[in-house]
């Protein structure tokens, strides 16, 4: 008998088991046509879990319920599964973070979310307490992740799977960018996890919510008909004189404000530049041969040092970059978040090294003489890098710009990593021999 998971396709607690199964090479089938509120009320389901909660895993030896228990069961089906670490202390830490993810993260997200969608009574003090407790937990998690790529050890464990699935509901339903920006290492960790192949196969494309759902308004009970005053049959109808409606007066000291125009980006107010950024991006993208003679020469012909500035960036935590695909995902996520600078910047990121730890370095062209403030405010990854303005009067720095544009940045004699290239509006990450 195959392992059958009873849950809906979008149940985040079911995701834990499905992702653990992908990592473990265990076949778990999601039951077809599951309908919450119907399928879990049938006598057959209630025999597996008497209180009707999902998910439930049907196994040859009997059912297992509670999502963390199911994920543990599936993980243990594979002998010496690396999802459970390689030592007793790692095992203990994995269990520690699973409990933390459930009791400190998931519970407080639930306390915040359920009243807002009408599944519990909404009480503002209760919500404030839940948010405060969640922020406290995220702060502790953020501190741990400041020096750790994964929760335990140097690869994905069951703790990461449970933590990410619990954070998933927060990021997708409640926690806006303005909320999570206070916890940059948690953000980096979450987006790194959900972009791992075994995660993305189950979760699909993950998007962060743009707003907190409004509180569901409770309907007032209708007045019973018998309470209405009956009309006597012979009672004449009273004429109601309609008085002309008085024009609404604005409260004393208040006036209706006209809609405020959207403020312009300060970079749009700079003096015009002779450098047309899109022309450089096209030249960069379309040059296939003689790159030095065509693209790099063209760059310096176009470059306007009064209207633009060049910046080197170096990742501060290169010792964390022990897994090549994780490092690539980290840099790829940075470039995605830098998409907000599309109109005002060109960027080039390199992952360097023949073996771990890998070095991450970049070159950026920004409109203006400083890194734009709105990029610093919106893209938390910026603080993970050391930024140095390029002095183009220094021939050594100018040559380094040329080498980075050409993907030939030297670093202790090591080559760029093996072939993968992400391109977006003239910014890219390259791994190349």
TrEMBL record:
Function: Probably plays a role in anchoring the complex to other cellular components.
Subunit: EF-1 is composed of four subunits: alpha, beta, delta, and gamma.
The organism's taxonomic lineage, starting at the top: Eukaryota, Viridiplantae, Streptophyta, Embryophyta, Tracheophyta
Domain spans labelled GST N-terminal: 1-82
InterPro entries associated with the record: EF-1-gamma_plant (IPR044628), EF1B_G_C (IPR001662), EF1B_G_C_sf (IPR036433), Glutathione-S-Trfase_C-like (IPR010987), Glutathione-S-Trfase_C_sf (IPR036282), Glutathione_S-Trfase (IPR040079), Glutathione_S-Trfase_N (IPR004045), GST_C (IPR004046)
Keywords: Elongation factor, Protein biosynthesis
TM region(s), chain numbering: none
Protein name: Elongation factor 1-gamma
Domain GST C-terminal stretches: 87-215
Biased composition (Basic and acidic residues): 223-251
Protein source organism: Vitis vinifera
GO molecular function, one term: translation elongation factor activity
Region named Disordered: 212-270
Pfam families: EF1G, GST_C, GST_N
Xref: PANTHER family: ELONGATION FACTOR 1-GAMMA 1-RELATED, ELONGATION FACTOR 1-GAMMA 3
């Amino acid at each position: 008998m195959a392992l059958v998971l009873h849950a809906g396709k979008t149940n985040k607690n079911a995701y834990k088991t499905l992702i653990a199964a992908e990592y473990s090479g265990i076949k778990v089938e999601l039951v077809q046509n599951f309908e919450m509120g119907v399928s879990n009320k049938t006598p057959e389901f209630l025999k597996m879990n008497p209180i009707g909660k999902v998910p439930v895993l049907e196994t040859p030896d009997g059912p297992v319920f509670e999502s963390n228990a199911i994920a543990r069961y599936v993980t243990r089906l594979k002998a010496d599964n690396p999802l459970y670490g390689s030592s007793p202390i790692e095992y203990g830490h994995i269990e520690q973070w699973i409990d933390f993810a459930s009791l400190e993260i998931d519970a407080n997200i639930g306390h915040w979310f359920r009243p807002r969608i009408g599944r519990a009574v909404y009480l503002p003090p209760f919500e404030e307490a839940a948010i405060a407790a969640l922020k406290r937990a995220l702060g502790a998690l953020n501190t741990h992740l400041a020096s750790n790529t994964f929760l335990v050890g140097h690869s994905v464990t069951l703790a990461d799977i449970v933590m990410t699935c619990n954070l998933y509901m927060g990021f997708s339903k409640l926690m806006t960018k303005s909320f999570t920006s206070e916890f940059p290492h948690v953000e980096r960790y979450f987006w790194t996890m959900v972009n791992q192949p075994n995660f993305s196969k189950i979760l699909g494309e993950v998007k962060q919510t743009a707003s907190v759902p409004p509180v569901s308004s409770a309907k007032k009970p209708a007045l019973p008909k018998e309470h209405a005053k009956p009309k006597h049959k012979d009672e004449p109808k009273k004429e109601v004189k309609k008085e002309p409606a008085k024009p609404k007066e604005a409260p004393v000291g208040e006036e209706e404000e006209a809609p405020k125009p959207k403020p312009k980006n300060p970079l749009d107010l700079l003096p015009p530049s002779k450098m047309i950024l899109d022309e450089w991006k096209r030249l960069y993208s379309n040059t296939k041969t003689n790159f030095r003679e065509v693209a790099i020469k063209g760059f310096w012909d176009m470059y306007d040092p009064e209207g633009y500035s060049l910046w080197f960036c170096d990742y501060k935590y290169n010792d964390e970059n022990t897994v090549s695909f994780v490092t690539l995902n980290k840099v790829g996520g940075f470039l995605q978040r830098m998409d907000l600078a599309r109109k005002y910047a060109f960027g080039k990121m390199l992952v360097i090294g023949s073996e771990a730890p890998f070095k991450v370095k970049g070159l950026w062209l920004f409109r203006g003489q400083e890194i734009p403030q709105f990029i610093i405010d919106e893209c938390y990854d910026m603080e993970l890098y050391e930024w140095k303005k390029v002095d183009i009067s220094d021939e050594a720095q100018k040559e380094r710009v040329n080498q980075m544009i050409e993907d030939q940045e030297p670093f202790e004699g090591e080559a760029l990593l093996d072939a993968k290239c992400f391109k977006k509006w003239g910014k890219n990450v390259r791994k190349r021999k």
